[in-house]
Structure formats: C-alpha cells, structure tokens
C-alpha cells in the first residue's frame, strides 16, 4: 500500500530514473490493488492485472486512453486537482464504472510523483474494493485510517477540523459565511440499550445517510462521537442571511430525523437531536474557537430539553467560562475548608419550640464571599463533586450534633440534603454508618432529605438504599414535595417519616384557594401515613395562620429565622428562642 509518508521516499529518488522504474514495477506487479499510472494530461500509460480484474476492463482498453473514460469531470477536478496542485496526493472513496455496466465503490489513492523541480511527471492511482458505498464523496488527508469513521463512512473529527480550517479561510477570502452545526442525538443510548448494539449501529448509519443526503455536495457532515455529528455549511454567500439559512437547514435536519427509521425485527424508531450552531465570521474565525462555540451552544440546547437548536452567543461563553472557573475552584473547596454549614430552625407549630434544623451548605469563596448552593450544587452534581461535598456535609452535621450534645443543649433533629448521585454512585449506607459511629450520636436525630425527582431517577436502587438507612434508625424526609410528578400513593412505599411541602405552595396560599386545597389534601394524606408535615418558606403571619389551621406540624422559614451560621444557631438553642405557641387547642 502507498502511504502518504512514502511520498517523500518517492520524491527523492525520482531524479534517478532507474530507481523510479523499479519502484513502479514493484508497485504494479506485487500489488493486490489495482494500479494505474497516468501522465499529467490524464493519459493512462500503464495499468496492472489487478486493475483489470477489479473493473473488468482489459488492459488494452485502458492503456493509452484518457482517464476521463473512467472518471467524471467532477471527480477529475477534485481528485486530480488535489493530487497535482495542492497536496501531492488524494485519498478517498469513489464510485467507478465497471465493464459490465453500473458502478462499484473503490478506495482510491492518487499519488503525484514529483521531481524536485516541481513539474509533475505522473500520477500513480491505486484502487482497492471499498467495503461500502460512500455517503459523501470521501477525500482524506494525512491520516487515512483515522480520517474516516468505519461505521458510517463519514469523515471523523480529524478530517472535519481540516475541512473547517479550509472552509473558514476560503470564506474569508470570498466574504462568505460558514455555518457549523454540532448535533447530539437525544437519548441514543436508549436505542442501544433496548434494541441492541447492532440495531443501534444500523440506526446511526441511517442517520448518517440522511444527513449526507440533505447537504449540498460542498458541505461536509462528519461523525465526531458515538451519537454526535458535525455539519459544515460552506459558501453561504449572503452573510446577513446566514442565521436564517442555517436555521432552515437545522429545521430540515429535524424533519429528516423525525422520519421513522425501520430496523430489523419490526422495530421502528424516531429520533431527535439537540444542535448547537455557530457562524463564521460572525462568531469568530479560529476553527478551534468555532468548535468550542458550537459545543457551548449545544450544551445550552440540551439543557433546554429535547429537539432544540441554539445559536451561539457571547453570553454563553461568559456563562460557560464562569461555570468552568467554578468547577475548577470547587474541586478544592472541601480540601481548603471553604465550605460551611448554615442551620435553619424548624419550629413545632403547637409548642412554638425549635425541634429541628436543616443544614444548608454555603461556599465561602476566597474572592466572591458566600456563594449560594443554588449556584454551585448543580455544578457539583454535573461533575460528580457532589460526592465528596455531600459526604463532608453529612459528617459535619453529625459532628455538630455531637458538639451540641456535649454542650448540654437540648437535642434536635438535623436535616441533611442528599443528591441523587449519592444514591447511585456511593455506598451511602456505609458512609452514614461511619458518620454515626464516629460521632456516637443517636441515629434518630439525623434526618436525611431527598427530593421526589431524585427518588424517581432510579426508584429501585433508591428504595433499597432508603430502606437500609431507615433500618439504622435514621429519619428520612421527602423534600420539596409538590414540585415533582410523583403522587403520595406512589411514595407510601418509601420509609419517609417527614414530608416537606415546597415553598412554592406557600407563596400563593393566601390568594390562591386551589393551592390551599392542595396543601390541605397533602397534609391530610401525609397524616394518614403517619408522616410529620413541615412547611418550607413561611414568611408572613398570614401564611403561618393558614398553615396552623391546616394542621401542618412544623414550619421552616424566614418568618422565624433565615439559615444562620453555627454560632448564631447555637445561641438560639441556648436561649431557647421560640415562636409564640399556637392559640388553638
Ligand atoms: P432546600 O433543601 O429546599 O432548602 C430550603 C431552601 O429554602 C434554603 O435555600 C433556604 O434558605 C430557603 N428558605 C428557607 N426559608 C425560606 C423563606 O422563608 N423564604 C425563601 N425565599 N427561602 C427560604 P438554600 O440554603 O439557598 O438552599 C437551596 C437548595 O440547595 C436547597 O433547597 C437544597 O436543595 C440545596 N442544598 C443546600 N445544601 C445542600 C447540601 O448540603 N447538599 C445538597 N445536595 N443540596 C443542598
Ligand atoms: Mg432540603
Ligand atoms: Mg426544600
């Protein structure tokens, strides 16, 4: 086989015609591949037996003829141009005619044999049977093997980047625009998981074919990840209309994907995708930057839900940059002891006394000061950092309970929030056990809060873990109740002792009779399951009155106290600060 790197070896001895002749002879006779030699005008001067075998043409029908007899003008233009004038070689797959009629796909390599003076002596064309028909006309660069995706026959990222570079600089010269679409199929792993890898592969091939068909020949589509594709729309001549033009393509792509794909075994699937789009020169002219832009836009599109496309904007970079910076510094937050726990009291509505507290994490950022968990917990969840952070929170809360006990303060229940990932990726039971053991606290004072949506992520696994934790004597609460899609009847199989009503209900309860009715029903049902009801986010006396009337058990909210630092909270416990007791019996 000829490798592009061999080009150098060919270049050097070319001045030596004996060596050149020997090289060509070896190539011709020993090659399993079909070989053609042609001169700079395109006249075939030699061909080997393998070529005759592959194409069915006799050598005498080939030698002395112009290559145009076999290749169309379009192919000649790109292939020979590339080989002769640009790179010195061309590689790719072409459909070539057969003697018996029709065409077949061949992998083709064209090598220009150049003397040092730069004048072209001849072209060596090497043909091998291609395994499958190309979905786009292949043209390869330095790394032929990694340039093509074996599954779909599409270019890979390596080749795509090369083409992107070319397209961007060409567009600049001609004052054209270029559109780059980064596409990620929605939930494609579900196809693999439910229908099997083989059918998944077939589906990907079909997607590749559809994408390739939808583009103009000058455009490029590449497969750049398992279920990720990149599309390059070149030569958009009306720069001002680029957004509209590319949107039209994006919508066309959605339509193509939405057409059902029939798979063996009578399965039919419909796909959708998220797309991130960036334009050059509008969003930049650096190919790497453009790729980054489209990835940024893609992740925004994904966060918006399925079947969504997003154009890149500078604000996205700003958000991405902040996220990235946060992720980096968050990595060391635990080690550098930058996390702190705040405590928010939970008050019994009958006695008015503090009976519990929720531990709420804060990040004491060296530059930014206290950072809200609403800002950094999502990043921690995405990056898996929630695991060490969650463990730190749990251990710190348990130690605090032990400290309060040692100080002789009245014992209260402390709630700790858990993320779904902690159930899925960690031996949570072991961690809880070790925290209890280390601090020696009575498990009944520890209260683990979990949201409905976290439970629903992996019901079976979560239930198993919750049951084991409950068996340790630790309390479990369902957090933010009413915001998810679960129903109490679904949740009665879980060992929850407490239900926390989300504060979104409280906000509207004064003027929304519907919400009051829902809250009343939730409380009644929770009580029938022997659960304590805590209402979150109480801010006004009016809200307090209503919740008392609805027989809610406890409250947590700014009306009594915002989350406070440990010193302040300890002081509150020492003083026995309380809410005026209920007047009702
Ligand atoms: P959450 O578990 O529902 O916590 C209650 C949130 O409501 C707290 O916000 C609290 O400050 C706020 N809040 C309490 N009373 C009121 C009120 O009267 N009015 C208003 N407007 N807000 C009130 P925070 O501390 O910012 O925490 C937000 C969320 O961050 C928590 O919601 C929880 O989901 C998460 N989080 C906090 N700490 C942790 C943690 O250690 N681990 C995990 N996984 N998540 C945590
Ligand atoms: Mg909570
Ligand atoms: Mg909550």
Task: Describe this protein's structure.
This protein has an 8-stranded mixed barrel, surrounded by 5 helices. Helix 12 crosses helix 13 (373-383), helix 14 (386-406) packs parallel to helix 16 (428-439) and helix 20 crosses helix 21. The protein has 585 residues and is of the alpha/beta class. The chain folds into 3 domains: 4-129, Beta-Lactamase; 145-312, Alpha-Beta Plaits, CATH 3.30.70.270; 336-575, TIM Barrel (Alpha-Beta Barrel). Residues 1-15 and 131-144 have low confidence and may be disordered. It has 23 helices and 21 strands.
Poorly predicted ranges: 1-15, 131-144
What's the architecture of the largest domain, going by CATH?
Answer: Alpha-Beta Barrel
- Our count of domains comes out at 3
Strand order of the largest sheet: 13-14-16-17-18-19-20-21
Q: Helix- and strand-based class?
A: alpha/beta
Q: Could you please say which CATH topology of the largest domain applies here?
A: TIM Barrel
Question: Using only CA atoms, what is the Rg?
Answer: 34 Å
Number of helices: 23
């Amino acid at each position: 086989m000829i490798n592009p790197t061999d080009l150098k070896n060919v270049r050097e001895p070319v001045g030596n015609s004996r060596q050149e002749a020997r090289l060509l002879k070896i190539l011709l006779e020993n090659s399993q591949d079909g070989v053609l030699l042609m001169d700079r005008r395109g006249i075939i001067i030699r061909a080997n037996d393998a070529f005759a075998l592959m194409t069915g043409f006799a050598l005498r029908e080939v030698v002395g003829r112009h290559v145009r007899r076999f290749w169309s003008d379009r192919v000649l233009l790109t292939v020979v141009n590339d080989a002769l004038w640009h790179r010195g070689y061309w590689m790719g797959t072409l459909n070539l005619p057969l003697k018996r009629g029709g065409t077949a796909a061949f992998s083709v390599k064209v090598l220009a044999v150049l003397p040092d003076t730069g004048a072209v002596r001849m072209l060596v064309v090497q043909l091998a049977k291609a395994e499958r028909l190309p979905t786009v006309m292949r043209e390869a660069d330095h790394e032929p093997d990694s340039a093509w995706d074996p599954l779909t026959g599409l270019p890979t990222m390596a080749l795509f980047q090369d083409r992107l570079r070319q397209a961007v600089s060409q567009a600049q010269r001609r004052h054209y625009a270029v559109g780059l679409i980064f596409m990620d199929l929605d939930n494609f792993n579900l196809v693999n998981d439910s229908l099997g890898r083989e059918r998944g592969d077939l589906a990907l091939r079909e997607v590749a074919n559809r994408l390739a068909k939808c583009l103009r020949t000058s455009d490029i589509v590449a497969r750049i990840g398992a279920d990720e594709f990149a599309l390059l729309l070149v030569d958009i001549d009306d720069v001002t209309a680029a957004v509209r033009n590319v949107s039209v393509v994006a919508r066309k792509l959605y339509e193509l994907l939405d057409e059902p794909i029939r798979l063996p075994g009578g399965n039919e699937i419909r796909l959708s995708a998220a797309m991130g789009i960036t334009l050059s020169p509008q969003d930049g002219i650096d190919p790497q930057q453009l790729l980054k832009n489209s990835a940024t836009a893609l992740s925004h599109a994904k966060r918006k839900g399925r079947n969504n496309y997003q154009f890149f904007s500078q604000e996205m970079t700003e958000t991405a940059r902040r996220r990235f910076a946060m992720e980096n510094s968050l990595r060391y937050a635990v080690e550098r002891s930058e996390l702190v726990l705040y405590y928010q009291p939970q008050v019994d509505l009958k006695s008015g006394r503090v009976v519990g507290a929720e531990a709420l994490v804060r990040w004491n950022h060296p530059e930014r000061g206290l950072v809200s968990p609403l800002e950094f917990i999502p990043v921690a969840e995405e990056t898996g950092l929630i695991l060490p952070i969650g463990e730190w929170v749990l251990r710190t809360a348990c130690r605090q309970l032990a400290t309060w006990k040692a100080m002789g303060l009245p014992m209260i229940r402390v709630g700790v929030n858990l993320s779904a990932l902690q159930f899925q990726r960690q031996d949570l039971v072991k961690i809880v056990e070790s925290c209890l053991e280390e601090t020696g606290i009575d498990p009944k004072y520890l209260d683990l809060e979990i949201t409905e949506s976290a439970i629903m992520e992996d019901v079976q696994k979560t239930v198993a873990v919750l049951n084991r934790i409950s068996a340790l004597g630790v309390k479990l609460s369902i957090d933010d109740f009413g915001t998810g899609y679960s129903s109490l009847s679904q949740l009665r199989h879980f060992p929850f002792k407490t239900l926390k009503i989300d504060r979104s209900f409280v906000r509207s309860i004064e003027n929304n009779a519907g919400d009051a009715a829902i809250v009343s029903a939730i409380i009644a049902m929770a009580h029938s399951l022997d659960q304590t009801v805590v209402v979150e986010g109480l801010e006004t006396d009016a809200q307090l009155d209503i919740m008392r009337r609805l027989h809610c058990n406890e409250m947590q909210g700014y009306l009594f106290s915002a989350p406070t630092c440990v010193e302040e909270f300890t002081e509150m416990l020492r003083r026995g600060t309380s809410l005026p007791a209920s007047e009702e019996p």
